[in-house]
Write a structure and sequence with these properties.
Elements: H1 10-21, E1 25-34, E2 37-45, E3 51-53, H2 65-79, E4 82-85, E5 90-96, E6 102-110, H3 111-123
Helix pairs in contact: 2-3
Length: 125
């Protein structure tokens, strides 16, 4: 039997990254495509003043990898966890226990996805 992976929906994941990692705030934006049919969406306003569309996928764009690393890698170090690289850009995050057997914290995932999963696990959300 296959083990099911429980994942949060992509929209919630993007919101988590923006709010918890980048400390961005939501800014409501009314976009009108048809007269009388306004749609309310939001953008992210970052502490440095940048405004980013709420549909931005932070995990798939290379320009967001550095800022994610700056926040999450120190958290992983503070927990005493280590990162082990595998093939094809996958990694897993583990912790050495007293028995010298690694305890896998985050199984095989792409690098940025594993970092985000580690951040979620550390914060307990």
């Amino acid at each position: 039997m296959k083990k099911e992976r429980l994942t949060i929906p992509q929209r919630q994941r993007r919101a988590y990254i923006a709010e918890k990692i980048f400390r961005a705030k939501k800014k409501l934006v009314a976009r009108t495509y048809l007269v009388g049919k306004e749609e309310f969406e939001y953008d992210w306003v970052f502490p440095d003043g940048r405004i980013v569309d709420s549909k931005t996928n932070f995990e798939s764009l290379p320009e967001w990898v550095g800022p994610i690393c700056e926040v999450v890698l120190p958290m992983i170090g503070d927990m005493g966890w280590s990162i082990f690289p595998l093939r094809d850009g996958l990694i897993f995050i583990y912790e050495l226990t007293d028995s010298d057997e690694p305890k896998i914290i985050i199984p095989n995932r792409p690098f940025v996805t594993a970092l985000i999963d580690a951040c979620i696990k550390i914060s307990g959300e």
